[in-house]
Design a protein that fits this description.
Elements: E1 13-17, E2 29-31, E3 36-38, E4 53-54, E5 66-70, E6 83-95, E7 101-112, E8 129-132, E9 141-147, E10 157-159, E11 165-168
Parallel strand pairs: 1-5
Antiparallel strand pairs: 1-4, 2-3, 6-7, 7-10, 8-9, 9-10, 9-11
């Protein structure tokens, strides 16, 4: 009889988690009702009622060898095309150190993307929408954007100095 090594990475049940791209993943907490560790995450989860994926259907608990898999590059994203690009001039009053005020004018860039229908309901509380340019002179740059800046329930996006350039993307 010969001895064979048991594969170190053998797994029959995967538990999937996704790290937040800009914030650390929320820490696990103990569910007092069942004494299990649970992860709280509001984004990209398996379908409700599917806490894990087994190697084959109807696998018993005794057969399960669990492994946690974290997908830190899986997040909601879409490649779109800007159209109807316009500018809107804003005037901002700035109070100077000597008590006087100065008016500063700046342009915000507005655009539409007819390939997507977006809703303010999709925005998570406390989260900022961003756009990453993938071509042209702004290729690789990340900007914060505002959806429906005038509150007219229209599919319009705005980039402006107030939201500003955040950082170039490292590839």
């Amino acid at each position: 009889m010969s001895r064979s090594e048991f594969p170190v990475n053998l797994c029959t049940r995967y538990l999937y988690f996704r790290l937040d791209k800009e914030h650390s993943c929320q820490l696990p907490s103990v569910d007092e009702a069942c004494g299990k560790m649970v992860w709280v995450q509001k984004r990209l989860m398996l379908p409700e009622g599917t806490p894990y994926i087994d190697a084959y259907p109807k696998m018993s608990t005794e057969e399960a060898i669990e492994q946690v898999v974290i997908f830190d590059e899986v997040y909601p994203r879409r490649v779109g095309t800007m159209s109807d690009i316009t500018t809107k001039e804003y005037t901002e009053t700035i109070e100077n150190a000597d008590g006087t005020t100065t008016e500063k004018k700046w342009d915000a860039y507005r655009f539409k993307d007819t390939g997507i229908t977006f809703s303010k309901d999709y925005i998570l509380p406390g989260e900022e929408l961003t756009i990453i340019f993938q071509s042209g002179k702004l290729n690789g740059m990340v900007f914060a954007v505002t959806f429906d800046p005038d509150g007219k329930d229209e599919q319009l996006w705005e980039i402006g100095p107030k939201r500003g350039l955040r950082s170039p993307v490292t590839r």
